[in-house]
Specification:
two-stranded antiparallel ribbon; DUF937 domain-containing protein; DUF937
Length: 178
């Protein structure tokens, strides 16, 4: 998945692994799953005009992401707010569900997701700026951008990140409408 690979390419995986107390391979897997869940939640929100508008506004506040990220500069309080908007009342359940996945045993997603959320929005803002598209207001504009990062179109509901069925995870959390 190109978008998740972009996120991985920007992150100091060794620094994340140290913060989470795991090896770099496990940290990479966790970033793929956590980033995929955030992108999936954003894509779900972008399916409504109100959600797409809110995401557009958030992207404006997260522009200026460089080619690499210093984790010590990431605003995790902002990340918590982003997760609240993306997942609503299901925020903690998303983290718990990801934490219980066997592929990433030992990862505390409640700690990782707030680090990833501002980075994901920054990457989306960067992609939007660099994409040269002037049709963000058109049907599926932001949803297509997010879907492209997930490796499919805006309607793809069963994407997999690191072996996790994101459509199933998010669909189960949000009432089975995947």
């Amino acid at each position: 998945m190109a978008g998740l690979d972009d996120i991985l390419g920007m992150l100091p995986i060794d620094q994340i692994a140290a913060k989470l107390g795991v090896d770099p391979a496990t940290a990479t897997q966790a970033v793929q799953e956590g980033g995929g869940a955030i992108l999936g939640g954003l894509q779900r929100n972008a399916a409504t005009p109100e959600g797409a508008s809110a995401i557009e506004a958030a992207l404006g506040r997260h522009a200026g992401l460089g080619d690499s990220v210093d984790l010590d500069q990431v605003d995790t309080a902002d990340g918590e707010k982003i997760l609240g908007h993306v997942f609503g009342s299901q925020k903690d359940q998303v983290a718990q569900t990801l934490t219980s996945e066997p592929q990433t045993a030992g990862i505390e997603f409640g700690k990782l997701l707030p680090m990833l959320a501002p980075i994901v929005l920054g990457l989306l803002a960067k992609k939007k700026q660099g994409g040269g598209s002037t049709s963000q207001e058109s049907s599926g504009g932001i949803g297509d951008l997010i879907g492209g990062l997930l490796g499919g179109g805006a309607s793809g509901g069963g994407q997999k990140a690191g072996g996790i069925d994101l459509g199933g995870l998010l669909g189960g959390l949000f009432g089975g409408k995947s």
